[in-house]
UniProtKB/TrEMBL annotation, chain A:
Family matches, as CDD domains: TM_PBP1_transp_AraH_like
Main location: membrane
Topology in the lipid bilayer: Multi-pass membrane protein
InterPro entries the record matches: ABC_transp_permease
Keyword Transmembrane: yes
Keywords: Cell membrane, Membrane, Sugar transport, Transmembrane, Transmembrane helix, Transport
GO-annotated molecular function: transmembrane transporter activity
Compartments it resides in: Cell membrane
Name the record gives this protein: Simple sugar transport system permease protein
Organism for this UniProt entry: Pelagibacterium luteolum
Automatic annotation (TrEMBL), chain B:
Keywords: Cell membrane, Membrane, Sugar transport, Transmembrane, Transmembrane helix, Transport
Subcellular location: Cell membrane
GO cellular component, one term: plasma membrane
Listed name of the protein: Simple sugar transport system permease protein
CDD domains: TM_PBP1_transp_AraH_like
Transmembrane segments: 6-26, 38-57, 63-81, 88-109, 115-134, 162-181, 211-231, 290-312
Superkingdom field: Bacteria
Coiled-coil features, chain-numbered ranges: none
Length: 348, 331
């Protein structure tokens, strides 16, 4: 098989295709697309559009997880960015300033997380827990406890407008994914991030400025969360500090894990994380259009996590080694390389 | 003095100072009535926090607590109101189911060698999803047993009441303290949290202890759901969203090291009380908004986590001087 063709046959693509196919069986009109009022409509577009906020979170989360970290605060950062945008637009500031301020709020949150991890040496799950707890309180302080609504057409455009017939969130998602992939893969940045994920002290001794890189990675995650927060606020034309982005950090982590990025750090793929987010959203939409109660979603997500965990676990790798003795490979001993072998082996 | 006592002392000092300041502003806060209400209102949180303390002491984390509380409350309500079971039978079934749930999570964490937070994340989705399958609405519980339980209370001097729920929480804490500091299981948990590899080499049954820790956590979350159903006389599938964060915060503010191995069950009780006191203060003040609770708790979390870093650094220096300083703490 030629290499470009082969790279498309990944378990994630097969899973996405299967879910879409299942949706089509349950709801025959699933692949229908309409062109109305200069914009495409249809369930497929809906999957991309609704999946965009989680996909954008997942882009930042991928970089964080690649350094063996985790960012639990992205949902709260979304709330803060949305609150800043909605409040400022309500005060009559120009759109450019509003978006810059919301993005700056995300950057500051990311900088805070990054500093705790890189400078104070806290465990990432603990460092970001602080902002996860306090963040919604901060967002509520900004909105003074109200759900701030707005009618500014420019800001609403970020959530429900369209460019070239596609909804704005999709364009933002694709652009950000492409830029981030280029930044990480066309330069040595991706390699540096992976090096920190594999062994931070070794990479520091090798001359990497791991502190600055870590701070940068968390700041990037905060930036992505802010974009996602602006989209979420624009979508409902208001900032709901209590509920926007609630549990989305978990969806984002799930998307990254589905995308094949190792939670142990050192191996990541931004496009696959976006595919992971789309898989989650395809399941969401499928459950909705086929008439099941939306709460089914939680069960399906739980089942998905369990399947991935079992498949990626070192235990499955060991079992696979005994089932397939034709592979002349030494038994996997280091935890870092086992998930790779087991995923390929069991899912193909 | 052993640096390991610093977090506990800091917690108690903060509690005493904050309480004294609050009492200076509102003398009415200094009454057993406030204390009694504080215990009753935070009883379900406290019961769940005892389980979370075990999990965090063992070096893990349990994100499923809030969902298990909701699940347990709804299951109890369904069993009593729709199947007509006696509440005690419903409690037994619920606690059994919850314990099995926790054991399964523990087994997955140990045997699949995956981070605890991702397994318990799946548990969180699963428990909440099953709860929604049971019901989408709030189910009221009207049973003579619930009215009977509610008339149990102890009147403290000053008129404050320790209700059944508040008393149960204190008993759970007492049992938790004994289990953590005076039993073999407790020592295993501390050993596991201190260093899992050394613990295994020293003969600690790692699999049994890990499974036990998550079983205890889910059992207590189930008990917490029962307390919650006694408190609200209903089962509601959207109840206790985010309670896992509040319990984690209480454990950390109580001085338990999030990396595991160091901490005291008693500190968690103080952590719960501090959280309850912040809420009571906001109610007394009247001008502050409820979200200040989150910001203050976030700030306290930050302060304690930074202090823990300092302590870890200090205890490493300490350890170089005298190795015996690392002996297991006891209460």
């Amino acid at each position: 098989m030629s290499r470009p063709l082969r790279s498309f046959i990944k378990p994630q693509f097969i899973a996405l295709a299967l879910i879409l196919l299942l949706n089509w069986i349950l709801f025959p009109g699933f692949f229908n697309l309409f062109f109305r009022d200069g914009r495409l409509y249809g369930s497929l577009i809906d999957v991309l559009n609704r999946g965009a906020p989680v996909a954008i979170l997942a882009i930042g989360m991928t970089a964080v997880i690649a350094t063996r970290g985790i960012d639990l605060s992205v949902g709260a950062v979304m709330a803060i960015a949305g609150a800043v945008a909605a409040t400022m637009v309500g005060d009559g500031h120009p759109l450019f300033l509003v978006i810059m301020a919301a993005l700056a709020a995300g950057l500051v949150c990311g900088l805070w997380n990054g500093s705790l991890v890189a400078l104070l040496g806290l465990q990432p799950i603990i460092a970001t827990l602080i902002l996860m707890v306090a963040g919604r309180g901060i967002a509520q302080t900004i909105t003074e406890g109200f759900i701030v609504t707005f009618n500014d057409p420019g800001l609403i455009f970020m959530g429900s407008g369209s460019i070239l017939g596609l909804p704005t969130p999709i364009i933002i998602m694709v652009t950000l994914a492409a830029l981030a992939t280029a930044a990480f893969r066309l330069t040595a940045l991706g390699l540096f991030v992976e090096a920190i994920g594999v062994n931070r002290s070794a990479s520091t001794y090798a001359g990497l400025r791991s502190r600055a890189l870590l701070i940068g990675v968390y700041t990037f995650a905060g930036f992505c969360a802010a974009i996602s927060g602006i989209i979420a606020a624009a979508d409902i034309r208001g900032a709901d500090a209590n509920n926007v982005g609630l549990w989305l950090e978990l969806d984002a982590i799930l998307a990254v894990v589905i995308g094949g990025t190792s939670l142990m750090g050192g191996r990541f793929s931004i496009p696959m994380s976006v595919v992971g987010a789309l898989i989650i959203q395809a399941m969401n939409t499928g459950i909705l259009v086929s008439g099941f109660p939306p709460e089914f979603n939680l069960l399906v997500k739980a089942a998905l996590i369990i399947v991935i965990l079992v498949v990626q676990s070192p235990l499955a790798g060991r079992i696979w080694y005994f089932i397939a003795p034709s592979r002349k490979r030494p038994p996997p001993s280091s935890p870092a390389e086992t998930p790779a072998t087991s995923t390929e082996g069991t899912l193909k | 003095m052993n640096v390991r006592y610093w977090p506990l002392i800091a917690t108690i000092t903060i509690f005493v100072v904050a309480y004294a300041l609050a009492v200076m502003q509102f003398p009415a806060l200094f009454s057993t009535r406030v204390l009694g209400n504080l215990l009753t209102d935070n009883a379900f949180l406290g019961v769940a926090a005892v389980g979370m303390t075990f999990v965090i002491l063992s070096g893990g984390i349990d994100l499923s607590v809030g969902s298990v509380i909701a699940f347990s409350g709804v299951l109890v309500a369904v069993l009593i109101s729709q199947f007509g079971l006696h509440p005690l039978a419903a409690f037994a079934i619920t606690l059994f189911v919850c314990t099995c749930f926790g054991s399964t999570m523990g087994a997955m964490i140990h045997y699949l060698e995956v981070p605890a937070f991702i397994v318990t994340l799946a548990g969180m989705f699963l428990a909440r999803g099953v709860t929604f399958l049971l019901t989408q609405d709030s189910i009221p519980i009207n049973h003579a047993f619930y009215d009977w339980v509610r008339q149990f209370y102890y009147v403290m001097p000053g008129g404050g009441r320790i209700t059944f729920n508040g008393g149960l929480m204190l008993i759970v804490f007492l049992v938790g303290i004994v289990l953590a500091h005076r039993t073999r299981f407790g020592s295993y948990v501390y050993a596991l949290g201190g260093n899992a590899q050394s613990a295994a080499l020293l003969g600690v049954p790692v699999a049994r202890t890990t499974i036990g820790v998550y079983a205890v956590s889910s059992f207590l979350a189930g008990l917490s759901g029962i307390v919650y159903s006694l408190y609200t006389s209903s089962g509601y599938p959207l109840a206790a969203v985010g309670v896992e964060l509040e319990t984690i915060a209480a454990v950390v503010i109580g001085g338990t090291l999030l990396s595991g191995g160091v901490g005291f069950m008693f500190g968690t009780l103080i952590g719960i009380t501090i959280q309850g006191m912040i809420q009571t203060y906001i109610v007394f003040d009247g001008t502050l908004s409820s979200w200040w609770t989150k910001i203050v708790i976030g700030g306290l979390l930050f302060g304690f986590i930074v202090m823990q870093r300092v302590i870890v650094a200090a205890s490493k220096r300490d350890w170089r001087k005298k190795p015996y300083a690392q002996s297991a703490p006891s209460l």
